[in-house]
Amino acid sequence: MTERVAPSLDDPVMTALSEGIGGPVGRHARPARWWTPVRVVLALTALAFALGMLQKQPCWSEDWADGHDRYVKMCYSDVPYLYTGRGFAELLWPYDDDTEVRAKYEVMEYPVGIAYAAWAAAHVSHWLVGSGSVEARADVGTGALLQQPGVLEEQRGFIVATTMGLALATLAAGWALARVHRRRPYDAALFAASPVLVVNALVNWDLLAVALVAGALLAWARQRPVLTGVLIGLGVATKLYPLFLLGGIAVICLRTRAWRTFATVVLAAALAWLVADLPAMLTGWDEWMHFWSFNNERGPDLGSLWLVLSQAGVPVSTDLVNRVSLLGLAAWCLVVLAVGLRAPRTPRLAQLGFLIVAGFLVLNKVYSPQYALWLLPLAVMARPRWRDQLVWQAGELLYFASVWWYLDGQLDSGGGTQPVFYWLAIIVRVACELWLVGVVVRDIRHPAYDVVGSADDGAVEGRRLEAHA
Protein backbone atom coordinates (compact mmCIF):
# COMPACT_ATOMS: atom_id res chain seq x y z
CA MET A 1 0.00 0.00 0.00
CA THR A 2 1.32 3.47 -0.91
CA GLU A 3 2.31 5.55 2.10
CA ARG A 4 0.11 8.59 2.70
CA VAL A 5 1.54 12.09 2.86
CA ALA A 6 1.30 13.54 6.38
CA PRO A 7 0.14 17.18 6.40
CA SER A 8 2.38 18.08 9.37
CA LEU A 9 5.41 16.97 7.37
CA ASP A 10 4.28 18.21 3.97
CA ASP A 11 2.80 21.68 4.50
CA PRO A 12 4.93 24.39 6.17
CA VAL A 13 1.87 25.99 7.76
CA MET A 14 0.71 22.69 9.25
CA THR A 15 4.25 21.93 10.39
CA ALA A 16 4.38 25.23 12.28
CA LEU A 17 0.92 24.72 13.80
CA SER A 18 1.76 21.19 14.90
CA GLU A 19 4.52 22.53 17.17
CA GLY A 20 1.82 23.60 19.61
CA ILE A 21 0.58 20.01 20.02
CA GLY A 22 3.84 18.10 20.09
CA GLY A 23 5.30 18.63 16.64
CA PRO A 24 4.96 16.80 13.32
CA VAL A 25 4.06 13.13 13.20
CA GLY A 26 7.02 10.85 13.87
CA ARG A 27 8.31 7.94 11.83
CA HIS A 28 7.06 5.40 14.37
CA ALA A 29 3.59 6.89 14.83
CA ARG A 30 0.78 4.38 14.47
CA PRO A 31 -2.30 5.54 12.53
CA ALA A 32 -5.63 5.38 14.32
CA ARG A 33 -7.79 2.50 13.18
CA TRP A 34 -11.11 4.32 13.22
CA TRP A 35 -10.04 7.90 12.43
CA THR A 36 -9.16 7.30 8.81
CA PRO A 37 -8.32 10.36 6.66
CA VAL A 38 -11.73 10.24 4.96
CA ARG A 39 -13.52 10.21 8.31
CA VAL A 40 -11.40 13.10 9.57
CA VAL A 41 -12.28 15.09 6.46
CA LEU A 42 -15.97 14.27 6.88
CA ALA A 43 -15.86 15.37 10.52
CA LEU A 44 -14.19 18.65 9.57
CA THR A 45 -16.74 19.16 6.79
CA ALA A 46 -19.63 18.60 9.19
CA LEU A 47 -18.10 21.04 11.67
CA ALA A 48 -17.60 23.72 9.02
CA PHE A 49 -21.16 23.31 7.78
CA ALA A 50 -22.47 23.51 11.35
CA LEU A 51 -20.56 26.75 11.83
CA GLY A 52 -22.16 27.99 8.62
CA MET A 53 -25.59 27.21 10.08
CA LEU A 54 -24.65 29.04 13.28
CA GLN A 55 -23.55 32.03 11.22
CA LYS A 56 -27.11 32.27 9.84
CA GLN A 57 -28.72 32.03 13.28
CA PRO A 58 -29.40 35.79 13.71
CA CYS A 59 -31.56 35.77 10.59
CA TRP A 60 -33.20 32.46 11.48
CA SER A 61 -34.33 33.84 14.84
CA GLU A 62 -36.02 36.75 13.01
CA ASP A 63 -37.39 34.64 10.13
CA TRP A 64 -35.26 36.69 7.75
CA ALA A 65 -37.79 39.52 8.15
CA ASP A 66 -35.37 42.24 9.27
CA GLY A 67 -33.90 43.81 6.14
CA HIS A 68 -31.25 45.68 8.14
CA ASP A 69 -30.03 42.80 10.30
CA ARG A 70 -29.68 40.38 7.41
CA TYR A 71 -26.93 42.64 6.03
CA VAL A 72 -25.17 44.04 9.08
CA LYS A 73 -25.13 40.60 10.72
CA MET A 74 -24.09 39.05 7.37
CA CYS A 75 -26.59 36.22 7.62
CA TYR A 76 -28.42 36.83 4.32
CA SER A 77 -29.62 33.82 2.32
CA ASP A 78 -31.65 33.57 -0.88
CA VAL A 79 -33.40 30.43 0.33
CA PRO A 80 -36.25 31.79 2.53
CA TYR A 81 -37.37 34.48 0.10
CA LEU A 82 -37.97 32.08 -2.76
CA TYR A 83 -40.51 30.04 -0.81
CA THR A 84 -43.14 32.76 -1.15
CA GLY A 85 -41.59 34.54 -4.12
CA ARG A 86 -41.51 31.69 -6.64
CA GLY A 87 -44.71 29.79 -5.90
CA PHE A 88 -43.40 27.09 -3.59
CA ALA A 89 -45.85 28.11 -0.86
CA GLU A 90 -48.51 26.83 -3.28
CA LEU A 91 -46.39 23.78 -4.20
CA LEU A 92 -46.34 24.96 -7.81
CA TRP A 93 -44.09 23.32 -10.37
CA PRO A 94 -41.29 25.84 -11.13
CA TYR A 95 -41.93 25.58 -14.87
CA ASP A 96 -45.71 25.91 -14.77
CA ASP A 97 -46.69 27.93 -17.85
CA ASP A 98 -50.17 28.85 -16.61
CA THR A 99 -50.77 32.54 -17.33
CA GLU A 100 -52.27 33.28 -13.91
CA VAL A 101 -49.32 31.63 -12.17
CA ARG A 102 -46.81 33.56 -14.23
CA ALA A 103 -48.66 36.82 -13.61
CA LYS A 104 -48.34 36.25 -9.87
CA TYR A 105 -44.90 34.67 -9.52
CA GLU A 106 -41.54 35.32 -11.12
CA VAL A 107 -39.89 32.40 -12.88
CA MET A 108 -36.94 30.72 -11.16
CA GLU A 109 -33.80 32.45 -12.42
CA TYR A 110 -31.61 29.40 -11.77
CA PRO A 111 -30.91 26.26 -13.80
CA VAL A 112 -33.19 23.29 -13.42
CA GLY A 113 -31.16 21.43 -10.80
CA ILE A 114 -31.73 24.18 -8.25
CA ALA A 115 -35.37 24.59 -9.26
CA TYR A 116 -36.01 20.87 -8.78
CA ALA A 117 -34.22 20.89 -5.41
CA ALA A 118 -36.28 23.85 -4.17
CA TRP A 119 -39.52 22.26 -5.39
CA ALA A 120 -38.65 19.01 -3.60
CA ALA A 121 -37.74 20.90 -0.41
CA ALA A 122 -41.12 22.64 -0.52
CA HIS A 123 -42.90 19.29 -0.66
CA VAL A 124 -40.78 17.94 2.19
CA SER A 125 -41.60 21.02 4.25
CA HIS A 126 -45.31 20.73 3.54
CA TRP A 127 -45.22 17.04 4.45
CA LEU A 128 -43.39 17.75 7.72
CA VAL A 129 -45.38 20.80 8.81
CA GLY A 130 -48.72 19.52 7.56
CA SER A 131 -50.50 22.82 6.93
CA GLY A 132 -53.20 21.25 4.80
CA SER A 133 -54.53 22.48 1.47
CA VAL A 134 -52.74 25.29 -0.38
CA GLU A 135 -55.59 26.06 -2.79
CA ALA A 136 -56.81 29.03 -0.74
CA ARG A 137 -53.48 30.77 -1.27
CA ALA A 138 -54.09 31.23 -4.98
CA ASP A 139 -56.00 34.46 -4.34
CA VAL A 140 -53.47 35.85 -1.85
CA GLY A 141 -50.76 38.23 -3.04
CA THR A 142 -47.15 37.23 -2.59
CA GLY A 143 -46.57 40.04 -0.10
CA ALA A 144 -49.28 38.68 2.21
CA LEU A 145 -48.48 34.98 1.98
CA LEU A 146 -46.36 34.91 5.14
CA GLN A 147 -49.38 36.10 7.11
CA GLN A 148 -51.45 33.11 6.00
CA PRO A 149 -51.89 30.23 8.48
CA GLY A 150 -48.96 27.82 8.47
CA VAL A 151 -46.88 29.57 5.79
CA LEU A 152 -44.22 30.89 8.16
CA GLU A 153 -43.78 27.42 9.66
CA GLU A 154 -43.57 25.96 6.17
CA GLN A 155 -40.94 28.50 5.22
CA ARG A 156 -38.85 27.45 8.20
CA GLY A 157 -39.33 23.81 7.18
CA PHE A 158 -38.28 24.75 3.64
CA ILE A 159 -35.06 26.25 5.01
CA VAL A 160 -34.40 23.16 7.13
CA ALA A 161 -35.02 20.75 4.24
CA THR A 162 -32.78 22.79 1.95
CA THR A 163 -30.08 22.97 4.61
CA MET A 164 -30.11 19.21 5.11
CA GLY A 165 -29.84 18.65 1.38
CA LEU A 166 -26.91 21.03 1.13
CA ALA A 167 -25.28 19.36 4.13
CA LEU A 168 -25.42 15.99 2.38
CA ALA A 169 -24.00 17.55 -0.78
CA THR A 170 -21.15 19.12 1.20
CA LEU A 171 -20.30 15.82 2.89
CA ALA A 172 -20.35 14.10 -0.50
CA ALA A 173 -17.96 16.72 -1.86
CA GLY A 174 -15.58 16.24 1.07
CA TRP A 175 -15.72 12.46 0.66
CA ALA A 176 -14.97 12.67 -3.07
CA LEU A 177 -12.11 15.15 -2.71
CA ALA A 178 -10.47 13.02 0.00
CA ARG A 179 -10.29 10.16 -2.53
CA VAL A 180 -9.00 12.04 -5.57
CA HIS A 181 -5.30 11.72 -4.69
CA ARG A 182 -4.64 8.36 -3.08
CA ARG A 183 -1.50 9.47 -1.26
CA ARG A 184 -2.89 12.87 -0.27
CA PRO A 185 -6.37 12.42 1.23
CA TYR A 186 -5.77 15.25 3.68
CA ASP A 187 -5.67 17.78 0.83
CA ALA A 188 -9.47 17.67 1.13
CA ALA A 189 -9.13 19.15 4.62
CA LEU A 190 -8.47 22.49 2.92
CA PHE A 191 -12.00 22.22 1.55
CA ALA A 192 -13.50 20.90 4.77
CA ALA A 193 -12.00 23.57 7.03
CA SER A 194 -12.32 26.43 4.57
CA PRO A 195 -13.53 29.82 5.84
CA VAL A 196 -15.14 30.31 2.42
CA LEU A 197 -17.24 27.20 3.01
CA VAL A 198 -18.35 28.39 6.44
CA VAL A 199 -19.60 31.82 5.40
CA ASN A 200 -21.04 30.95 1.97
CA ALA A 201 -22.53 27.48 2.48
CA LEU A 202 -26.14 28.63 2.90
CA VAL A 203 -26.29 31.79 0.79
CA ASN A 204 -27.70 29.83 -2.16
CA TRP A 205 -27.81 26.30 -3.59
CA ASP A 206 -24.30 26.39 -5.09
CA LEU A 207 -23.05 23.47 -3.01
CA LEU A 208 -25.17 21.12 -5.10
CA ALA A 209 -22.99 21.93 -8.11
CA VAL A 210 -19.84 21.86 -5.96
CA ALA A 211 -20.59 18.25 -4.97
CA LEU A 212 -21.03 17.27 -8.62
CA VAL A 213 -17.74 18.93 -9.56
CA ALA A 214 -15.95 17.13 -6.73
CA GLY A 215 -17.45 13.87 -7.94
CA ALA A 216 -16.31 14.60 -11.49
CA LEU A 217 -12.75 15.18 -10.26
CA LEU A 218 -12.83 11.80 -8.52
CA ALA A 219 -14.35 10.01 -11.50
CA TRP A 220 -11.71 11.49 -13.81
CA ALA A 221 -8.90 10.49 -11.42
CA ARG A 222 -10.28 6.93 -11.47
CA GLN A 223 -10.37 6.91 -15.31
CA ARG A 224 -14.14 6.68 -15.58
CA PRO A 225 -14.99 9.00 -18.49
CA VAL A 226 -18.70 8.12 -18.67
CA LEU A 227 -19.27 8.92 -15.00
CA THR A 228 -17.14 12.05 -15.36
CA GLY A 229 -19.36 13.24 -18.19
CA VAL A 230 -22.59 12.41 -16.38
CA LEU A 231 -21.53 14.37 -13.30
CA ILE A 232 -20.42 17.33 -15.39
CA GLY A 233 -23.73 17.28 -17.29
CA LEU A 234 -25.73 17.21 -14.07
CA GLY A 235 -23.50 19.98 -12.74
CA VAL A 236 -24.24 22.16 -15.77
CA ALA A 237 -27.94 21.52 -15.18
CA THR A 238 -27.46 22.91 -11.66
CA LYS A 239 -24.98 25.73 -12.27
CA LEU A 240 -23.42 26.60 -15.61
CA TYR A 241 -19.78 26.68 -14.52
CA PRO A 242 -19.08 22.89 -14.45
CA LEU A 243 -19.19 23.17 -18.24
CA PHE A 244 -15.69 24.64 -18.08
CA LEU A 245 -14.28 21.35 -16.84
CA LEU A 246 -14.73 20.12 -20.40
CA GLY A 247 -12.14 22.70 -21.43
CA GLY A 248 -9.63 21.23 -19.03
CA ILE A 249 -10.41 17.71 -20.23
CA ALA A 250 -10.01 18.89 -23.83
CA VAL A 251 -6.48 20.16 -23.08
CA ILE A 252 -5.50 16.87 -21.40
CA CYS A 253 -6.96 14.76 -24.19
CA LEU A 254 -5.39 16.95 -26.86
CA ARG A 255 -1.96 16.44 -25.31
CA THR A 256 -2.47 12.72 -24.92
CA ARG A 257 -4.40 12.16 -28.17
CA ALA A 258 -7.16 10.52 -26.17
CA TRP A 259 -9.87 11.49 -28.65
CA ARG A 260 -12.21 8.65 -27.73
CA THR A 261 -12.03 9.57 -24.04
CA PHE A 262 -12.90 13.18 -24.79
CA ALA A 263 -15.80 12.21 -27.05
CA THR A 264 -17.13 9.86 -24.37
CA VAL A 265 -17.03 12.56 -21.69
CA VAL A 266 -18.72 15.14 -23.92
CA LEU A 267 -21.45 12.77 -25.09
CA ALA A 268 -22.18 11.58 -21.54
CA ALA A 269 -22.30 15.18 -20.31
CA ALA A 270 -24.66 16.26 -23.08
CA LEU A 271 -27.03 13.35 -22.50
CA ALA A 272 -27.07 13.84 -18.73
CA TRP A 273 -27.76 17.56 -19.15
CA LEU A 274 -30.57 16.88 -21.63
CA VAL A 275 -32.22 14.25 -19.44
CA ALA A 276 -32.09 16.61 -16.46
CA ASP A 277 -33.50 19.56 -18.42
CA LEU A 278 -36.11 17.70 -20.44
CA PRO A 279 -38.94 17.82 -17.83
CA ALA A 280 -38.60 21.59 -17.63
CA MET A 281 -38.37 21.99 -21.39
CA LEU A 282 -41.49 19.92 -21.99
CA THR A 283 -43.64 21.56 -19.33
CA GLY A 284 -42.65 25.20 -19.79
CA TRP A 285 -40.27 26.07 -22.61
CA ASP A 286 -40.44 29.83 -22.05
CA GLU A 287 -39.95 29.34 -18.32
CA TRP A 288 -36.96 27.09 -18.98
CA MET A 289 -35.48 29.73 -21.30
CA HIS A 290 -35.80 32.38 -18.60
CA PHE A 291 -32.46 31.47 -17.05
CA TRP A 292 -30.66 32.12 -20.31
CA SER A 293 -32.50 35.35 -21.15
CA PHE A 294 -32.18 36.64 -17.59
CA ASN A 295 -28.41 36.26 -17.62
CA ASN A 296 -28.10 37.73 -21.09
CA GLU A 297 -30.17 40.82 -20.26
CA ARG A 298 -28.80 41.70 -16.80
CA GLY A 299 -26.28 44.52 -16.58
CA PRO A 300 -23.15 44.89 -14.43
CA ASP A 301 -23.99 43.48 -11.02
CA LEU A 302 -22.62 42.79 -7.56
CA GLY A 303 -18.97 41.88 -7.16
CA SER A 304 -17.89 42.45 -10.75
CA LEU A 305 -15.21 44.76 -12.09
CA TRP A 306 -17.86 45.89 -14.54
CA LEU A 307 -19.90 47.29 -11.65
CA VAL A 308 -16.88 49.27 -10.48
CA LEU A 309 -16.46 50.77 -13.94
CA SER A 310 -20.18 51.50 -14.23
CA GLN A 311 -20.43 53.20 -10.84
CA ALA A 312 -17.25 55.15 -11.54
CA GLY A 313 -18.92 56.72 -14.56
CA VAL A 314 -17.52 54.60 -17.40
CA PRO A 315 -20.28 53.96 -19.98
CA VAL A 316 -20.66 50.17 -20.06
CA SER A 317 -23.88 48.99 -21.68
CA THR A 318 -25.21 45.47 -21.23
CA ASP A 319 -24.43 44.62 -24.86
CA LEU A 320 -20.88 45.88 -24.49
CA VAL A 321 -20.35 43.88 -21.31
CA ASN A 322 -21.75 40.74 -22.94
CA ARG A 323 -19.49 41.06 -25.98
CA VAL A 324 -16.31 41.98 -24.12
CA SER A 325 -16.86 39.33 -21.45
CA LEU A 326 -17.35 36.64 -24.10
CA LEU A 327 -14.31 37.74 -26.11
CA GLY A 328 -12.26 38.08 -22.96
CA LEU A 329 -13.20 34.58 -21.82
CA ALA A 330 -12.32 33.18 -25.24
CA ALA A 331 -8.91 34.86 -25.05
CA TRP A 332 -8.43 33.59 -21.48
CA CYS A 333 -9.24 30.04 -22.58
CA LEU A 334 -6.71 30.29 -25.42
CA VAL A 335 -4.06 31.31 -22.91
CA VAL A 336 -4.97 28.34 -20.69
CA LEU A 337 -4.79 26.11 -23.76
CA ALA A 338 -1.32 27.44 -24.57
CA VAL A 339 -0.16 27.00 -20.98
CA GLY A 340 -1.50 23.45 -20.92
CA LEU A 341 0.01 22.42 -24.25
CA ARG A 342 3.42 23.96 -23.55
CA ALA A 343 3.70 22.52 -20.04
CA PRO A 344 6.57 20.05 -19.46
CA ARG A 345 4.03 17.44 -18.38
CA THR A 346 0.28 17.11 -18.67
CA PRO A 347 -1.47 19.37 -16.13
CA ARG A 348 -4.10 17.98 -13.81
CA LEU A 349 -7.81 18.56 -14.40
CA ALA A 350 -8.15 20.55 -11.17
CA GLN A 351 -5.41 22.93 -12.30
CA LEU A 352 -6.91 23.57 -15.72
CA GLY A 353 -10.47 23.71 -14.40
CA PHE A 354 -9.46 26.21 -11.75
CA LEU A 355 -7.79 28.48 -14.29
CA ILE A 356 -10.78 28.51 -16.64
CA VAL A 357 -13.40 29.04 -13.92
CA ALA A 358 -11.28 31.78 -12.33
CA GLY A 359 -11.09 33.59 -15.66
CA PHE A 360 -14.85 33.31 -16.11
CA LEU A 361 -15.49 34.80 -12.67
CA VAL A 362 -13.03 37.67 -13.08
CA LEU A 363 -14.55 38.64 -16.43
CA ASN A 364 -18.19 37.93 -15.58
CA LYS A 365 -20.68 40.77 -15.06
CA VAL A 366 -21.81 39.38 -11.72
CA TYR A 367 -19.61 37.84 -9.02
CA SER A 368 -21.81 37.01 -6.05
CA PRO A 369 -20.07 36.12 -2.76
CA GLN A 370 -21.11 32.46 -2.88
CA TYR A 371 -19.44 32.04 -6.28
CA ALA A 372 -16.22 31.51 -4.33
CA LEU A 373 -17.59 28.02 -3.67
CA TRP A 374 -17.27 27.31 -7.38
CA LEU A 375 -13.52 27.68 -7.13
CA LEU A 376 -13.08 25.97 -3.78
CA PRO A 377 -12.78 22.26 -4.73
CA LEU A 378 -10.75 23.11 -7.81
CA ALA A 379 -8.46 25.46 -5.89
CA VAL A 380 -7.67 23.06 -3.06
CA MET A 381 -6.94 20.23 -5.48
CA ALA A 382 -4.92 22.46 -7.80
CA ARG A 383 -2.77 24.01 -5.06
CA PRO A 384 -3.13 22.14 -1.74
CA ARG A 385 -1.12 24.56 0.37
CA TRP A 386 -2.65 26.37 3.37
CA ARG A 387 -0.69 29.56 2.81
CA ASP A 388 -1.88 29.95 -0.77
CA GLN A 389 -5.46 29.06 0.10
CA LEU A 390 -5.57 31.52 2.99
CA VAL A 391 -4.21 34.34 0.84
CA TRP A 392 -6.97 33.78 -1.70
CA GLN A 393 -9.66 33.31 0.92
CA ALA A 394 -8.63 36.44 2.80
CA GLY A 395 -9.77 38.39 -0.24
CA GLU A 396 -13.02 36.43 -0.31
CA LEU A 397 -13.72 37.15 3.36
CA LEU A 398 -13.05 40.86 2.89
CA TYR A 399 -15.53 40.90 0.04
CA PHE A 400 -18.07 38.81 1.94
CA ALA A 401 -18.21 41.41 4.70
CA SER A 402 -18.11 44.35 2.32
CA VAL A 403 -20.96 43.30 0.05
CA TRP A 404 -23.46 43.11 2.92
CA TRP A 405 -22.34 46.45 4.35
CA TYR A 406 -22.63 47.90 0.86
CA LEU A 407 -26.17 46.58 0.41
CA ASP A 408 -27.11 48.12 3.75
CA GLY A 409 -25.70 51.48 2.64
CA GLN A 410 -22.84 51.44 5.14
CA LEU A 411 -20.06 51.94 2.58
CA ASP A 412 -21.15 55.16 0.90
CA SER A 413 -18.53 57.88 0.88
CA GLY A 414 -18.86 61.01 2.99
CA GLY A 415 -20.83 62.66 0.19
CA GLY A 416 -23.08 59.61 -0.03
CA THR A 417 -22.44 59.02 -3.72
CA GLN A 418 -19.58 56.61 -4.33
CA PRO A 419 -18.96 53.34 -2.41
CA VAL A 420 -15.18 53.50 -2.82
CA PHE A 421 -14.45 50.95 -0.10
CA TYR A 422 -16.74 48.45 -1.84
CA TRP A 423 -14.84 49.02 -5.08
CA LEU A 424 -11.60 48.40 -3.21
CA ALA A 425 -12.98 45.16 -1.77
CA ILE A 426 -13.86 43.96 -5.28
CA ILE A 427 -10.39 44.81 -6.56
CA VAL A 428 -8.65 43.14 -3.61
CA ARG A 429 -10.79 40.04 -4.08
CA VAL A 430 -9.88 39.79 -7.75
CA ALA A 431 -6.21 40.46 -7.00
CA CYS A 432 -6.08 37.63 -4.45
CA GLU A 433 -7.72 35.31 -6.95
CA LEU A 434 -5.28 36.28 -9.68
CA TRP A 435 -2.42 35.70 -7.26
CA LEU A 436 -3.58 32.10 -6.82
CA VAL A 437 -3.97 31.85 -10.60
CA GLY A 438 -0.34 32.88 -10.94
CA VAL A 439 0.76 30.23 -8.44
CA VAL A 440 -1.13 27.50 -10.31
CA VAL A 441 0.31 28.62 -13.65
CA ARG A 442 3.79 28.49 -12.10
CA ASP A 443 3.13 24.94 -10.91
CA ILE A 444 2.08 23.91 -14.41
CA ARG A 445 5.07 25.56 -16.11
CA HIS A 446 7.53 24.35 -13.47
CA PRO A 447 6.27 20.97 -12.20
CA ALA A 448 8.84 20.82 -9.41
CA TYR A 449 6.62 23.31 -7.53
CA ASP A 450 3.52 21.12 -7.93
CA VAL A 451 3.35 19.24 -4.63
CA VAL A 452 0.70 16.85 -5.97
CA GLY A 453 2.42 16.00 -9.22
CA SER A 454 5.84 15.57 -7.67
CA ALA A 455 4.66 13.50 -4.70
CA ASP A 456 1.68 11.59 -6.06
CA ASP A 457 2.65 10.44 -9.53
CA GLY A 458 0.09 7.66 -9.57
CA ALA A 459 -2.77 10.16 -9.24
CA VAL A 460 -1.80 12.41 -12.12
CA GLU A 461 -4.44 11.59 -14.68
CA GLY A 462 -2.67 13.13 -17.64
CA ARG A 463 0.31 10.81 -17.44
CA ARG A 464 -1.97 7.79 -17.06
CA LEU A 465 -3.77 8.78 -20.24
CA GLU A 466 -0.42 9.18 -22.00
CA ALA A 467 0.48 5.66 -20.91
CA HIS A 468 -2.70 4.26 -22.48
CA ALA A 469 -2.72 6.43 -25.61
From TrEMBL:
Transmembrane segments: 158-178, 190-220, 226-254, 261-282, 326-343, 349-368, 419-441
Predominant location category: membrane
Secretion signal, residue range per the UniProt entry: none
Lipid bilayer topology: Multi-pass membrane protein
Keywords: Cell membrane, Membrane, Transferase, Transmembrane, Transmembrane helix
Keyword Transferase included in the entry's annotation: yes
Subcellular compartments: Cell membrane
InterPro entries to which the protein is assigned, alphabetical: GT87 (IPR018584), UCP010361 (IPR016570)
Keyword Membrane: yes
Family per record: Belongs to the glycosyltransferase 87 family.
Annotated protein name in UniProt: Membrane protein
Organism: Nocardioides phosphati
